[in-house]
Amino acid sequence: xxxxxxxxxxxxxxxxxxTPSLSAMIVNHFRMRPDxxxxxxxxxxxxxxxxxxxxxxxxLQVCFKSEAWQLNTAIGWHxxxxxxxxxxxxxxxxxxxxxxxxxxxxx
Length: 107
Description:
With about 110 residues, the protein is of the alpha/beta class. It has a single domain, classed as Thiolase/Chalcone synthase (Peroxisomal Thiolase, Chain A, domain 1, 3-Layer(aba) Sandwich), CATH 3.40.47.10. Helices cover about 35% and strands about 15% of the residues. The chain contains 3 helices and 3 strands. A 3-stranded parallel beta sheet has the order 2-1-3, sandwiched between helices. The radius of gyration is 16 Å and the shape is globular. It starts with 7 loop residues before the first strand and ends in a 7-residue tail after the last helix. The relative contact order is 0.23.
């Protein structure tokens, strides 16, 4: 599939909300069509993946025979962790990514 074949693009990230949005960066980088429906969901925490699936479902009901792509991302950092040792900080960072990353999936 080519980027120009995509009709709907939904990008979500649990906490990270850059300007320009991640969806705008993807549309511009891959030179998608100017009429692509592009949605950026950010700052909603771990529920953003499930919300994006609901949005994709509703858009596909309205936009017949469309190709919709959903991209889930989790931008995390461990700079805020201040533990007793570097090993404990690394373990906490790993566990926070595993436990709090978006897990929504659509077929």
